[in-house]
């Protein structure tokens, strides 16, 4: 048995290893250590985020039980998401005929503003709201990790990326941006599907935490989203055409 002072020192070192700063430092140190990343498991997660996202969050429970943290400790998912983002953005640049310099500018905008910047804002906002208003019993020992909030955003962002930046590419020039109802219907329906995925996977992420309450409110935006979708068809709004204009405006 450890002496009292030795046991206290051990507990302090163990607690330090589990602080948010320590977890973040460990995660960042591993981000360039590709041989230590489990890309096969990250691919499995991406596949199931499209097919059965509930299964992905079961693994988060397992990680909490074995490693005492909800957030990912392996950056493989983030690396693969970045690759998907870069490849799909380059494809978008070719479809919009932006040229080499335009594609490079668009890539920088999408990666650092749309993905990282917006992701950090959304994760911080959800982290604050969930810890401030959704905890069943606010205590120091139980809270939503910021890293987990960021993981939930990444999980929800992946299907949105696949639908809007990959699937949609094949229909933009020849169907979606043409001035007819079917093109507008197809484009706006893909937006509806993508944003619905984002809302639902975000809800699953926070409802998976047993110490949170009233997480069903995260599904409320579905009603507003569907009403906005119907309104867009009635008023001839084409979201994809607007996105293409916005992307071109950015690089000019």
UniProtKB/TrEMBL annotation:
Keyword annotations: Membrane, Transmembrane, Transmembrane helix
Membrane topology classification: Multi-pass membrane protein
Native source species: Eptatretus burgeri
Record localization: Nucleus inner membrane
Membrane-crossing residue ranges in chain numbering: 77-99, 106-129, 156-178, 190-212, 218-239
UniProt-recorded name of the protein: Unc-50 homolog (C. elegans)
Family statement: Belongs to the unc-50 family.
Superkingdom field: Eukaryota
Pfam families to which the protein is assigned, alphabetical: UNC-50 (PF05216)
Cited function: Involved in the cell surface expression of neuronal nicotinic receptors. Binds RNA.
GO CC, one annotated term: Golgi membrane
């Amino acid at each position: 048995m450890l002496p009292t002072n030795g046991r206290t020192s051990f507990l302090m070192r163990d607690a330090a290893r589990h602080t948010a700063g320590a977890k973040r430092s460990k995660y960042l140190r591993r981000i360039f250590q590709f041989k230590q990343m489990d890309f096969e498991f990250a691919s499995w997660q991406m596949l199931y985020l499209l097919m059965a996202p509930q299964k992905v969050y079961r693994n988060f429970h397992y990680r909490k039980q074995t490693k005492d943290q909800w957030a990912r400790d392996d950056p493989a998912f983030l690396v693969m998401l970045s690759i998907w983002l870069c490849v799909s953005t380059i494809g978008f640049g070719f479809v919009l005929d932006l040229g080499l310099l335009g594609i490079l500018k668009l890539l920088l905008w999408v990666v650092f503003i749309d993905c990282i910047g917006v992701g950090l804002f959304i994760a911080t906002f959800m982290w604050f709201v969930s810890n401030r208003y959704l905890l069943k019993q606010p205590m120091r020992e139980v809270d939503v990790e910021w890293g987990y909030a960021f993981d939930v955003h990444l999980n929800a962002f992946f299907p949105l990326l696949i639908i809007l930046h990959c699937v949609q590419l094949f229909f933009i020039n020849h169907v979606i941006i043409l001035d007819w109802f079917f093109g507008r219907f197809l484009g706006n329906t893909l937006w509806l599907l993508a944003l619905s995925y984002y809302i639902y996977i975000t809800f699953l992420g926070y409802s998976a935490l047993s110490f949170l309450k009233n997480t069903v409110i995260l599904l409320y935006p579905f009603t507003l989203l569907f009403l906005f979708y119907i309104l867009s068809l009635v008023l001839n709004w084409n979201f994809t055409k607007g996105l293409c204009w916005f992307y071109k405006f950015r690089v000019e």
